[in-house]
Amino acid sequence: MKAAVLKSLGSPLAIEDVPAPVLGTGEVIVDVVATRVLSYMNEVFDGTRNYALDLPIIPGPGGIGRVRAIGPDATKLSVGDWVFCDPTVRSRDDVVAPDIALQGLTAAGPGGMKLQRHFRHGSYAEQMRVPTENVKKLGQITSEEASQWCALGTALVPYGGFLAAKLQPGETVLVSGATGNFGSAAVSVALAMGAACVVTPGRNEAVIADLVRRFGPRVKPVRLSGNEDDDREAMKRAAAGPIDCVLDIMPPSVATSVVRAAVMTVRAYGRIVLMGGVGMAGGAGLELPYPWIMRNCISIHGVWMYPPDAAGRLIAMVRAGLLRLDEYATTDFDLDHVNEAVAHAAANGGPFKLTVIRP
Known about the structure:
Rossmann fold, 18 strands, about 30% helix, globular, ADH-like_N
């Protein structure tokens, strides 16, 4: 089969014929129809992000496809089913604290690297092998719709954060990083989950205005000045009431003062969700006042990805019309032009934009 292979950091992806994946028990083979290109994939491939990769590797975090073959332990899947391939692979021998690898992208710790050595190859290929539990049925879609369904992979990340914080309908949310690709998805997900309003701070006035245009008055925009104290007060005023939950999903390049200004808007007994990249590329970590956390009974949730059942829940929200994938504008590339797709994603990584490879 044809695949894109990363052989060394800093080198272009090579388009090669490689052996097709072989089915094992507890696994499914999927014909890949569409797979997204993360806006920062270029930083993964050149080593800037310091992602753990056992090279060579076929990259690609998840995707949309059709079931080609199933193992003997699959009882609900059928050959030909349209499915979402969840890239969050978990070890099966510790349900309390499983090791995790993101198939085709990175891994956490020695256990995650061990997982990656088996489920190493991702979706930038004509076929991929996926753990059975990571294959989620979509119902009937068309081949053309597969590109927009790739947005599930983006929306799932903030959805996992809100699930960890137990976001409730009617609550007020602040999204730190709302003008980015994952942050804008967080706005749409919070509203789909029933948030009364979402505060959306940022410096790009055009993007903030577009969020209001898309979602209406439940979005409360705030233009950041760069002064930590002033920005914190401006965000609180925009909420017009206590902020129940703050989700930070800022990239590594953002100053910690910007993140701190946002997370410290949360009310007493409120929840903070940290999903961003502070300190990931080196530099200072996030400093928060111990007395403020303790005396205000603040809950802080560090969240990487989402629980195993999240994809099924989010698919149901899309089917119910609560979350709209047609917000996303997609640009498609074939597998032969994967390097052009990576460059395009880096240059077009804004809100509700998807760069898609269709093997």
